Amino acid sequence: MPSKSNSSKSSYSPNKSSQSSPPLRVQLRKEAWRLGKTVGKVAWHWAKNQEPVKRRLDQLEEKLEETKSKARTKLHSLEQEFWAWVESLEAEGYIESPHRVGPSLAMCYERLGVDAQVSNEALRKAWRKKMMACHPDRFAQDPIALAHAEERAREINEAYQRIQKSRGL
């Protein structure tokens, strides 16, 4: 009876020549890729200098610039619409926009020297008192003091208006 040989197992044993084959294969693939890339570049340079290809490239560049211009115009339009919407929300008192530069509400109360819980009448009295103390007409003879008083009066008025707007007055 013939003995069963173990033919299902591979008797592959690597030798020196088969070990160098994979790197050679890899090198050949890399070289073929480089050659293909070079051939592709040469073909592209040749093709782009052909008159029909040049015309089509010019058309595509014009279309690209036109599309960029339309996109910029649309973006600008959308931005204007957005800020108009934000301003309408501000005007209706729904939001206080963070893009506005100005004093915080707490700072406005501090400028007028009152608490946030003060009544509207007391707020008005505090505003009048501050305005009378730094009214620019009181400093007409001194240009430096006048400039300081104008700035201070502007800050006080701004604070008062901000508080009124937040209270819906």
Account of the 3D structure:
The chain is mostly helical and 169 residues long. It has two domains: 23-83; 102-167, Helix Hairpins (Orthogonal Bundle). Helix content is 72%, strand content 0%. It has five helices and no strands. It has helices at residues 16-48, 51-91, 105-112, 120-133, 143-167. Helix 3 (105-112) packs across helix 5. It starts with 15 loop residues before the first helix and ends with a helix. The model has no long low-confidence stretch (mean pLDDT 80).
Quote the CATH topology of the largest domain.
Helix Hairpins
- Strand portion: under 5%
Can you tell me the CATH class of the largest domain?
Answer: Mainly Alpha
Average pLDDT number: 80
Main beta-sheet strand count, sense and barrel state = none
Distance between the termini: 112 Å
What topology emerges from the helices and strands here?
Layout: H1 16-48, H2 51-91, H3 105-112, H4 120-133, H5 143-167
Any descriptors?
0% strand; single chain; 2 domains; mainly alpha; 169 residues; Helix Hairpins; 5 helices; 72% helix
Give a short overview.
By secondary structure, the protein is mainly α. The protein is 72% helix and 0% strand.
